Amino acid sequence: MIISASEGDGHGEGAVIPLEAAFEERACAQRAGTAVFMEGVSLALLGRVEQLRIRPTNASGTVDDDGHQQVRLEAGDDGPGSTCTCSDSSGGVFCRHAVAVALVATGSAGMAEDDDEEDGHTEDLFADDPVHAAIRVFLSRVPRAELVETLLDAADENEVVADVLWEATVAWHGRQHGAV
Length: 180
Description:
By secondary structure, this protein is of the alpha+beta class.
């Protein structure tokens, strides 16, 4: 839930680095490492970020994760910075709570905008299974050619996947040619 978002940069006339650029998804993944990044993705997808405040160069929020952790993100001239009340963030480590706040604050935690279902609603990303939620986000954003190769590789390795893809292929061709 966004409590407030300020319009101005609040820093006078000096140039500032926008929050979105400083905490871009790939940069967060590199900074946190794969395991910590995926934990942060799970927290974001499960809706654990609360009391979010977003400004052009900083954001803060609370993450409900075995207690409430207070996070602050800052995009400054010397690069992105974060603080968190958890023990994992000591020494400037980019923790899972900072990842979660960064993803939600920059809008990276949701599905791609053009992935609404045909009947006008979007599947609930905040499902009980964070693995499926993370996979859903990955599938919505991976380039089409990479997704095709990933699925074909999975079909080569697993007969059940191959059968499911074949059935979906036959059904798709039927719809393309007017079959009911």
